[in-house]
Every structure is written in structure tokens, then in C-alpha cells.
Amino acid sequence: MKQRTPFREAMLTFRRTPLLSALSVASIGFSLFTVGLFALVALNFRKALDTLAERVEVVAFVLRGTPTEAISQATQDIQAFPEVLSVSYVTSDEALSRARRELVEFREAYQELEVNPLPPSFEIRLQPTFRDAAHAQAVAERLRGFPFIEDVRYGRDWVERLDKIRNIAAAVGLVIGFAFAAVAVVIIGVTIRITVLQRAKEIAIMRLVGATNGYIRGPFLIEGAIKGVLGGALAVVMSWLMFSVFQRTIGDTGTTLAFFRAPEIILILVFGTTIGLGGSIMSVGRQLKNV
Amino acid sequence: MIRFNHVSKSYPNGVVGLTDVTFHIPKGQFVFLTGHSGAGKSSILSLIFAEQRPTEGDVRVSGYQIAKLTSKEIPRLRRRLGVVFQDFRLLEYRTIEENVAFALEVTGARREGIPNRVMRVLTQVGLASKARAYPKELSGGEQQRVAIARALVNDPHILIADEPTGNLDERATRGIFQLLREINAGGTVVVMATHNMDLVHDTGYRTIELRGGRIVYDSAVDVPEGTP
Predict the structure, then answer these.
(1) ipTM score of complex
(2) What average pLDDT score do residues A250-278 get?
(3) Hey, are the CB atoms on A208 and B83 less than 8 Å from each other?
């Protein structure tokens, strides 16, 4: 005679009702899959915005004739700003040769110049978390404090527009993501409730022979957690398949799409497990109140 | 052992289950609860094993006051009771021995001792040879014996039987009744609700008759009709 343990009982349920168990896992999987797909879209959209944000750069034009010592001291000072990722000093000559190289349509005009009209400058790239209008503005103000800085530019309108898009994307993502997650929680809750109701008789018998609530809950919680983690794994696999198909369909566009990394995959599995566990706790709790 | 003191029970839908019921069942007694369907037999039994709580009055079972039981005390009380139903209430996907062992496992009994105790009660009910069978492979009478074995395995002070022979033929009924008598002879209180008046009349056991939720006759205190 095999001894009953909560884990063995949970496993027994999978063997006894394979179809219902498979349906539960599938329904949890599909629910999390919709959340996962949305998360993938949001992830790639955010990645695209981050790529755009990489172009946020503050350029400070320096007065000609500024001593080299002042330039190197300023370089060190600017590098010490918390918002700054890197700072590079571009001399007038470097600026001109770059303009000749990059601005092909003006190449002839640049060739004919007798005097270099381009001033030297500091090109400052910001840390990823500071690539917004407010921080770019703050850095620009600080740069204006140097006496040899003639002008500071950072594409204000463009950065402010990027900020707006980011804020709207974050708000829409939060609302839709929450709605998707809420729907998933409801579907998973109903699925688990069905499996608990299917075993209502067993729960009633357990109560009848003197089982404590904790003893009755044990196998259900393990079962819910296993179904949750399996459903989460199924969602990750389905998302990956969909991602691969999509990538193959759009072909090589020059940009690489991002899939979930290990921490995000773990998050999906933990989310599935938590919902499976939570759904079981609530469903069994309600059932225990009824018997 | 069991004491009902002016107990009334009404349900949320307005149905009155019991009205002013008072009786006492001492240690070792065998008691029949009789009456038509809806007379209140099942209400009394469900109050005894704390499935319900009284609306008024006091119910005490094995020292527990039912109205004041906490959720932790309910399992403790039920481990002192054995309960048998008309529909057996066995777990179909477990073998006979697993069904019986289940009642021990939930109490946290020592695992090493479980197989011996299970075989002891299965022998007592005459089903030791079918320990590995599943409920569906047994007759109705045999399934009820398994239910009784499950009720007995914790050595209960009280055995409650709600129409235990209701689904059985005459021969199986006699067999189950004989088993309950033997259990009672061992000192266990047996409270049996039944429609089967033949069983009641053939024995000299105490009979409590209910009608409309009230006790209309108790052989322990009343003189039967027709007695001079």
C-alpha cells in the first residue's frame, strides 16, 4: 500500500484525469501566451525607442582660442556629471573633415572654404536612464556655466517628442498589460475552480473523516503550482514559435527583434506559478467553506 | 456521550429541521432514529458530526459543544466519530485498503502502523480478501462494509449511520445490521437513522421517532402505544 503524500496526491490527479489536467495547463498556457505576446510587442517597441534615445546628444560649442588646459579640465568636469556617459572634444578640423565626409551634397562648398567656419565642440552622450528632455536640459544649463561655452544644442523639440511617445507607450502598455493579465487571472481562476469542483466529493469525504483544511489544501496547491509553471513554460514556447515565424516572415530588415531573456522567462514562470497557486488557494478555500 | 438540550434547527431557506429536541445518549447505547423523509433524522445526525450548528439550544458530543466549535476543533471531533452514509461515499479511484487507510492518514497516524490497522478492520468487516479491489468491483453490501471499516479504523467512540441499508437488499441489510450490532457490543455508541421498521421491531434497542422535526416517541422515556 503506497503512502499518501501531498506531492504524490498531486501527481495522482494528473494521472487520473489527464485530459482535464492537460486542458487546465493549455488554458493557463494560452492565457499567459496572450500576455507574453503583448509583452514581446511592448519589449520590442521599447527597444526601438531606446535605440532612438541613443541619439540624444548634447553638443556644447566652444569659443575658439580656449586654452587646452581649460578644455582638458572641462572634459574631466563634464565626465563627472552623473548624467554623462561619455564626453569627447571635437576640434574645428575634425568637425570640418567629418562634415566633408558625411554631408556629401555640401562637399564642394566645404572644399572651397578658406576659413573653417565650424567651431570646436564637446559631444556629450547621456547615460541610458537620463536620455530625456529634463536631464538634457539640466546638463545643457550646467554646460552654459563654463565661460568658454558659446552655445549648447540638444535637439530640444525632438527629445521632448521622444519623451511624449515614451510616456504614452508606457501608459498604454501598463493599461493593456494589466487588462491582459487580469483576463489571464480570471481564465486561470475559472479553470482551477473547475478542477476543484470536479473533486468536491473527495474534499467532502476528507472533511468527513477529520482531515484538517491544511491537509486538504496541500495536494491542490502543489497541483495548482505545477499547472501554473507548466502553463508558463507552454506560453514561453508558444511565444518563441510565434516570434520565430514572425521573424522569418518579415525577413532581414536590418533590425534585430528581441525575445525574452532569462529573467523575463523566469518572471513568466513565476507569474504562472503564482496564479496557479493563488487560484488553488481561493478555489479550495471556497470549497472548504461549503462542506 | 451525546446530549441534545432543547435544540432547534432552521435553515436559511426557512425550512425548519428540528424543533425543541431534547435527548441524551449514554455510552454504549444503540439508538435508532426513525421517521419519514424530512422528519429531522438527518438534521440530528448532521448536528452530531458538526456539519450544521444548532439555531437554538445546546448540542454536546464527546465533550464538544457543537455551537462553539472552532474550525480547528471540527476535525478533532470528527476523528472521534465514524460516519456511514446510504451512498457509501467511497473514493472510486482508490483501492479498498487505500480508502480505509485514507481515514487514518488524514489524522496524521504513524505510517508504519497503518497497514496493520487497515487489515484489522477489513478482517472485522469480512473484506480482508478484497483489500486490493476497487469500490466498483464490489457489491452494494460490500461497499457499505468498506464504509463501515473506514468509519471504524480510528476506533471511534460514536458511529453514526445515516440510512446505511437504504440501498441494500434484504440479505445485505441483515449483514450490515449484524456488523453494527457487533460494533456496538464492543462499546461503541451507534446512532442509526433508518426507514426499515422491520429492523427496529426485531431488536430491543432504543428508538427515537421523529415527525415534523419533533420527537414524538422515545422508547427510553415513553411507554409504547398499546402497553397496559
Answers:
(1) 0.80
(2) 87
(3) yes
